[in-house]
Amino acid sequence: MFIHIGNDHVVHTEDIISIIDCQAIENSVIMKTMLENQHSNKSVIGSASHAKSIVITNDFIFYSNVSVVTLTKRSSYQAGFDHHEICFE
Questions:
Q1: What is the pTM of this model?
Q2: Do the Cβ atoms of 12 and 2 come closer than 8 Å?
Q3: Which NCBIfam families match (predicted)?
């Protein structure tokens, strides 16, 4: 399934490695260094200016204006469809 992560981006749920709150990144030297390295590799999509979360996938890192809580709910909701058969009568 796919999940809308904000800023007109949709990613495959199976590609998501992590969803991290931007506040946590501001306090982490390791995360800042990782983001700087990925910026130089052109693997970061979006702007940090209005981001609430960061979505790390297999190929890219997305800045998202959607909160971690909302993205987690969306991914859990989508996962429910992956594991249940939907019948229409």
A1: 0.79
A2: yes
A3: MtxRegRemB
DSSP E strands, the chain: 2-6, 9-12, 16-21, 44-45, 53-57, 61-64
- For the record, the structure tokens of 30 come out as 């390791």
Could you tell me the two tokens for 47?
A: 């702007």
Cβ proximity of 62 and 4 under 8 Å: no
Sign of CA dihedral 53, 63, 29, 15: positive
- Residue 84 DSSP SS3: coil
In the chain, pLDDT over 70 holds for what percent of residues?
A: 85
Residue ranges of the chain with per-residue pLDDT less than 70: 77-89
Token pair for 56: 């790390």
